[in-house]
Structure formats: C-alpha cells, structure tokens
Amino acid sequence: MTAYLFPAAVVLHLLSVVVWVGGMFFAHQVLRPVAVAQFEPPQRLPLWNGVFGRFFPWVWTAILLILATGFWMIFGYYGGFAKVPPYVHIMLALGIVMMLIYGHVFFGLYLKLKRAVADQDWPAAGARLNSIRRLVGINTILGLITIAIGSGGRFMAF
Fold it and tell me: Tens digit of pLDDT for each residue in 55-99?
C-alpha cells in the first residue's frame, strides 16, 4: 500500500516546495524592485503587509505538507533515516533551517511590521520590512540549493 502512496507524497512535497520557494523568488526578485520603484513607503509598506498576509498562510500550509510528506517518505517508504541517502539528510537539514528562519520572520518581524503599519510608523515598518527582505533573500537561496540537492542529489557524490 505504501508504494501506491509514494507518488502522491512526492507530488505534494514538490508542489509545496514550489509554492514556498517560488513565492519567495517572485516576491524578492520581481515584486520588490517594482514596488520600490513605484511606491513611497506609505503606499509600499501596506502593500507588503497585505502581500505577506495572503502569502504566509500558503507558506504555513506548504511547511506542514513538506514535513508530513517528507517524514512519511523517510519512515513509511524508505524505512527510516538509516536507509535514506546522505542528500536526503542534507535536504532535511536545510529545510529545517529555512523553517526556523521563516518562524523568525513570521513571529518576530512580520507581527512587528503589521503593528507598525497599523500605527503608520513608516520608519519602524521600513526597518522590519528590510529585515524580512534580507531573510527572505537568504531563504530563497537556501530553497534553491535545497531544490538542487533534492532533484540532483542522487547523481552527486555525497
């Protein structure tokens, strides 16, 4: 039975990664430069607050699905950590680092950004957004590296 569920787990895992990492790439590399060029902070900061408000529930869903499908594949299909190749361990470690960074972004910086935007404290909101931007940039790079390892790890010498 588990062999029949494996393809579904892989698909859910990959779609969740695409939503999270693709969303970060789009926000950081496409939306951010346009928003900076076209809007002043009183318009740009509420925009980002709204974007994060729509994107972050998707990220939480993606993280839950990544963890659930990843651990199911490790334990339910492969039979545990001892039986998976080293690239899976690396992929998991990078994913956990990304989740910890996201937790800091969400629970620390984003909640402060929301308060600052509600108070129209543009300097404080701008400082939070700048910190979020840096961490999203780091997470985007980590995500792309993780994708490369996950998709090509079996062909690499680890």
Answer: 999 999 999 999 999 999 999 999 999 999 999 999 999 999 999
**Residue 79 falls in which region: left (phi positive, over 0), alpha (psi -120 to 50) or beta:** left
Buried b (16+ CB within 10 A) or exposed e, 63-93: bebbbebbebbbeeebeeeeebeebbebbbe
Give percent above pLDDT 70 in the chain: 99
Q: 0.90 cut: is pTM over it?
A: yes
C-alpha torsion angle, residues 113, 114, 118, 122 (rounded to 10)? 20
What ranges do the domains of the chain cover? Answer: 2-155
Residue 128's CB: how many other CB atoms inside 10 A?
25
d(CA 109, CA 10): 32
Structure tokens at 155: 């062909």
With the C-alpha atoms ordered 34, 39, 40, 43, is the resulting torsion angle positive or negative? negative
Cα–Cα separations (whole angstroms), residue 85 to 51, 82, 103, 133, 158: 38, 8, 28, 33, 8
pLDDT above 80 (res 1)? no
Query: What pLDDT does residue 89 have?
Result: 96
